[in-house]
Amino acid sequence: MFGSEQATYGYDGNGFASKTGTAEHGDGLPPHVWYVAYDPEKDIAVAVVVKDGGHLGEGATGGQVSSPIGRAILRAYTGTEG
User: pLDDT tens across 19-36, in order?
Assistant: First the structure.
C-alpha cells in the first residue's frame, strides 16, 4: 500500500499507506473513483468515494481525484502539512 500512495497525484513523501481504484457502473458513464488510506503511526483511516469521476469525468482515477481529498483529511487529523 505504500507503493500505491507514491503513485497518487500530489504525493509528497508522506508515510501514509493507501489504495485507489475506479468502479465502472455503465457503458459511457464516468467511473466512480475511490481512495482508502491510513497513517500507520496514528489511529486514523479514511475512505473517499467520488461519484461519476468528479470534475474529470470519464478520464478520472482514484489517484487523481479522490486521493487529494483523503490526504487532506489525514493531514488535518495528524497536524501535518503537504
Answer: 999 999 889 899 999 999
